[in-house]
Fold this protein.
Amino acid sequence: MIRYRYTIKGIVQGVGFRPFVYQLATKLTLRGFVHNSSAGVILELEGKVKDIELFDECFLEELPPLAHIDSFEKHPISVQNSQDFEIIQTSSNDLKTTLVSPDIKVCDQCLEDIKTNPQYQNYFATNCTNCGPRYSIINTVPYDRKNTSMDKFTMCKHCQKEYDDPTNRRYHAQPISCNDCGPKLTIYENGTPLASNDPYKTVASYIKDGKILAIKGIGGFHIVCDATNDETIKALRKYKNRPSKPFALMCKDMDQIKHIASVNQTEQKLLSSKEAPIVILDKKDTNSISDLIAPNIYKIGCMLPYTPLHFLLFEHLDIPLIATSANLGGMPILKEKEQIEKLLPFIDIVVDFNRDIINAIDDSIVQVIYDKASMLRLARGYAPKVIKLPFSIDQKILAVGANSKSTIGIAFEDTLILSPYIGDLDHLESFEYFLRTIETFGRFYDFEPDIIVHDIHPNYETTKWAQTQNKELIAVQHHLAHIYALKAEYNLQNNDYIGFSFDGTGYGLDKTLWGGEVFLNDNRIYSFHPIALLGGAKAIKEPRRVALAALFEKYSLEELKHMSLPTLEAFSSTELQLLHQSYTKNINCPRTSSVGRLFDAIASLTGVLQNISYEGESGLRIEALYDHTIKESFTYSIKDGCIAIDYLEYIVANPPSPTKICSMLLNTLTDIVIDIAVLYREPILLCGGVFQNKTLLEILLPKLEQNQKHYYLPRSIPTNDSGIALGQLYKTILKLQKDNL
Ligand SMILES: [Zn+2]
Ligand SMILES: [Zn+2]
């Protein structure tokens, strides 16, 4: 007879971990107890040595689906002759440092219950310990019903029985609810509740009739409509002032997705995963969806149903649906019916229910690059994202991230936590959501920062906010933060790397705008030849201005008059004259080394587009034109650390063929990375928004491998500005570690 005490850390609370331990222990006739504590789950087991050994084996192999163990310690203590095994309820309120689980797709057993179990039959909010809402409904930890938005619903006898039974799948499932006692669904037509005997059929019929609906999901509302109906989509684009940005689809099942897009095994696995993200797929040439969903690009974002409500609706629908976050461009997803009515008045039908969303959270977006998943938007199912350090820190650190695709990050002890995607902070609503997220994380983790880390950009809202907080401040350069986000993901601690940080524009250490930087161990050794942004921020929306500035640099106005290029045709002669003046007088035309802007220049010069309607559009359009049979590149030079590509001479001398030139751009960027990489023996880091470009990476990565170069690429953390907060944290932590030595 022997007794052990275990301390288990990770995501082990609110995920069915204690009942799992209970069942395993009783099966092996072990005695003792299990309970939650602020240090994690405490478990004591008493029994025969061989049974405890068996327990250890099974315990790691048969974990409940949502549990995740970061560490466990075990040491022998004196035998206490316990009579049975029990789950001890935790009354203490100080379970603050336990981790909050993300929201998870409805499980197969709950879907079965919806079909066959009278208690849950057709019930849209069915859930259990293995599935359903978590982060989105939690007010504060510990994760108990009273700390969630389920607090106001009293369990019926049936639910209470399941909740109290350690052998039941719903033992301590905090959001447990059923037809009798749980949240109720209401359909509103123009603000008036609608009576219906079969609400799912009613909603489906509205969709089939071409209406635009708002349907409440896990972390907010979706705008939903028929993805095959041109007229409805045209109207939606007009209402949302969203001329071309692609819409995501929700499809009935995998077969339906396969009619719309090619799906490989990795993508299929992601689509069917418990996180159920939007996966960016290669669109097929198909008439099974409207051409207006993703105009001019060969990609499409698809997801599968993930709440019981989605599944119940699809019982009455065979068409794919547009399911886009209900918001106005760049703003956070809306989570209340009243907000929908106020901000999106064009919506006829609102499908609501009275379980409040406490923490709004968008759908996550993932794409598969070189057969591995790469996160584009970290949100539902994946966030809050936890990264463990191999050491502990003394300070509590808050990182406020960048300004667009904002997230926040916090660090304490050996834990880094990245928040879900917030949005673009130029909108007041997003900024409020940013403040709310800081508050929420403070509450969840009992967190009050000693240090705040921000970008060095003086005009970012996040920088300005940090400066009002009366805390120790640390500023981190934007493109180095991208590098350090990647280092954090792989726990790289040595300052020993060659890093390619290719991005949009960010504030540089020399106070110019950076965005095409090569770092050797934190030193900027190369950067791209700067292009002027004619009209400053305006040029970011209008690629034609970037291209024009590049032309002004090489040619006189007189010479340009004799050229015929799509860029020049996009301006009137008066505009050309005026812009030339501001260029020569250097009025409002800051220079930037951004690779993102290089994509813009090429997109304009080849006539692919002159103005963009969403961020990253040039890159997507250039990817769409890439032709694998074109092997040529532009020539380029590196002089005094400045990388200059000779694209203008080529384009001016040759009639611009978009396919050829766009392909040459991606080939040239590949050449540049390879040519530099082979000069160094350090591992290669690839990061920044440009490396969301799947085509570029699928040309580049095999070449790096052919050259036996060891590289790192962001996978579980977005390589865009959503990763900045993590990089800010990690760079600060490594610096503090070094200072302490
Ligand atoms: Zn379930
Ligand atoms: Zn009930």
